[in-house]
Amino acid sequence: MKFVRYGEAGSEKPGVLDSEGRLRDLSGVVPDIAGDVLARLGQIEPEALPEVTGNPRLGPPVGQVGKLIGIGLNYSDHAAEAGLKPPPEPIVFMKANSCITGPNDPVYLPRGSEKSDWEVELGVVIGRHCKYVTEAEALDYVVGYTIVNDVSERHFQTERKGQWTKGKSCDSFGPIGPWLVTADEVGDPQALDLELDLNGAPAQRGNTASMVFSVAYIVSYLSQMMSLHPGDIIATGTPPGVGMGMKPPRFLREGDVMTLAVQGLGTQRQEVLLDA
Asked: Does the pLDDT at position 173 exceed 90?
């Protein structure tokens, strides 16, 4: 099933797509697609819900995200384009949850930005409390998947010292969605195509089969160090084709348009604007 949150930013309502792709209103059944509600999503019957008319804005498909966790250099071919060896353990960083926006909202270049970059990623949504789980049982704690654009200011990230979080957390640097697709519908998370076009031209192309660390491994690994809670999202790394890997490097400019897709998870589209 495909779940969404729709409406004005900060006032989104929960929704679900029916078998014909029509948007149905979930607000009479659950208050939001967030927290403990995520464990009950399989009980929804979309055809019994009122249809939503028009073309409302889509917000991030998960509300009240507690943690947005990133995994760095997790595609062998992306590590190669960066001139780096795949890491022996997952590289973990945090993106401030204040960076989260809807899938088609603008991306704003922050003041002082010199090297803002794009990263299409598979997002993993945790469905129930997860701590000290094995790799074999890890996927049982995943309610579904979504698309994350891990927008990154490389100058902030690597040239201003300290943690990557500085370059990952600027406002609007975490578009998520359009849908939360339940795990049963996605199937094998290690067999999904990812792509990102910049201004209509191919930039990133990859497949989750190239991940250094699988979704199951990442969930298990993180659960040894921190509790994962319902609604936490893990951005699992990006395939090659990012701007810093181009020759010469090419970074985001005002007016650029990014279009992202992950197999079975829909598409995103963001126009790049300058922050006020």
From this structure: yes
Q: How far apart are CA 78 and CA 75, in angstroms?
A: 5
Rounded to an integer, what distance in angstroms lies between the CA atom of residue 112 and that of residue 39? Answer: 42
190-206: pLDDT as tens digits: 999 999 999 999 999 99
The H or E element spanning position 81 is helix 76-81
- pLDDT at site 182: 97
* Residues whose CB falls within 8 Å of the CB of residue 204, separated by 6 or more in sequence, listed in order: 118, 119, 120, 194, 195, 196, 238, 239, 240, 241, 242
The helix (H) or strand (E) run that includes residue 148 is: strand 142-149
In terms of DSSP bridges, do strands 267-274 and 107-109 run parallel, antiparallel, or are they unpaired?
parallel
pLDDT at 76 over 90: no
Name every residue whose Cβ is closer than 8 Å to that of residue 230 and which is 6 or more positions away in sequence: 34, 35, 36, 37, 38, 39, 126, 127, 128, 129, 143
Output b/e per residue, 94-107; b: 16+ Cβ within 10 A: ebebebbbbbbbeb
**Claim: this prediction has a pTM higher than 0.85:** yes
Provide the 3-class DSSP secondary structure of residue 172. Answer: coil
Which token pair is 89? 């353990």
The span from the CA of 269 to the CA of 266, in Å, is 11
